[in-house]
Amino acid sequence: MNRIVFVWIFLLTISSGDCLFCTGNHESVTFIPDRSEQDTLKENQDLYSGKVWENKYRRMNGDQFLFSNYFLPGNISANGKTFRDLLIRYDIHSDEIMIPVSLEDIVQVNKEVIDSFTLTFENKVYQFSKIDEDSLNNIEGFKGYFLVLYKNASALYIKYSKYISPDIREKSDGDFIQTQKIYLVKDKIIHQITTRNDLFRALEIMDSLLSTVKSNWIIWDSIFSNNAKVFKFPAEKEYHYLSGRLLTGNLQPVKTDETLLMSIPGREAVFQYTRTDANGNFNFRVHIDEELKDLILQPEINSKNQIISVESSFSDLYLPAKIFVDTTNGPVPSFISRLNISYQVRKIYGSSSIGDRITPFIPPLKPKRFYGIPDFELIIKNFIMLDSMHEVFFELVPRVALESINSDYKMLIFDPVKNKLEGSPVVMIDGVIIKNLSLIARLDPGLVEKIDVVWDKYRVGGYLFNGIVNIISKRGDFTNETLPADAVRLHYRVINTVSSFVSPEYSSAEMKNSPIADYRNTLYWNPSVHPDEKGKARIEFWTADNKSDYIISINGITNEGKTISLRKSFKVR
Question: What range defines the domain where residue 69 resides?
Fold first, then answer.
């Protein structure tokens, strides 16, 4: 007979009285810190990724920056992660933000990964959000970075810009003139405010919102404070860490500081680097989701006969276990036999407790080109098919050449007046760095979809590219080429897919009279029972046809990280 069982779970939830978001004071800073002593950038590659900035307006009157040509304190949100206590300068002529990496280099941050940023000027915090070109773009110029005045059901934005006015005195290349436009967005309709009547209309719309809208100055100044609680052993909430060791040819860990590279093959190039410690250990950051990832790891220098050893993602520390006398020849406990019989009966009836796949709590990360929008993009199908990649670069790709030197190949980048630029660009196929450029020379142009080129220097953290040439194949998965001998290709999943647990429902007469026997060994399973505000939770399940003793096992964790475990039993007669 099937009976419904109610289980009440009481959990003690402890809340901390600490202030997580408190307002902090900011001071203007006008110097560039020297970070060249150590590579603290590799953990923040999502942020320190961009072209190396060069000042192209030395002969201009004024400057192209908002508020000041000094770097101002601020914060940046990129790819869903917040980077605090930065020095930022906002170029409103090109609508780009930049941050210093060292005394020598300033990086223009990759705009594709930026969500928002703040600037602190004269003790006031200004919040800027990025609006993509595929949203709310029915007014020309309504994309890029906008100052947020208010944002709720409706929003009020300011767009700052500077244009160049010719110098009639001809003593300079011109003057920077600042302009600004105000926009009101309501119900996905954009109202550009250009006259006093526009302003009155906007005020009428905003007047109905002022009772509920909160000022963004206050919100963001609190969120980006320095008083957030710091945990000594943080969980992998933002990233999973793929760890391993770099070994020599005789399987000894390398003792020198070596650089390793990680690529995710695809049409959108994803790149990350790391460095080994004194014992050859390394780790890469991997987004936490259920997606099966295609990862390629390789040393920066492919000629050292090194071996990449990837460690297990499971801990190598286990609870102590006792060794008991061998019991394999003893009698099998009766409950083991009953469990086995129940399993076989369910298999005969085709019954299963595995339901549909549960929608992932964390969606996969949409890949974005780590180098942003390239300086030049060649779509092969738009041109007559050529016989070789050498001809493709010679005829169709400006400022780039693939040269043959003593049966070897070299990629070169030139400036606009055809002077060879310093260093060699990084060459990729489907986002995977290629050192042996004969692979490019032998590549069939008919297999190529497009070529992306970044002519200028580009930084990702502490890793500098002297230009980038990325060849994207029609398959876009790097399956047409062979990996170097010391590279490793992994199909890696951080979290396994989870299916729902199916339990029969006997509340209807049809189910109660079903001829199919219910021989479930597990009556109920739920990995995420959440108590209410009083610390109580209630679960319900129906028993099976087996008349036996059952065990209730409850395991959980409190808000303070304390584990709980409870086991009870009940009998079905």
Answer: 42-223
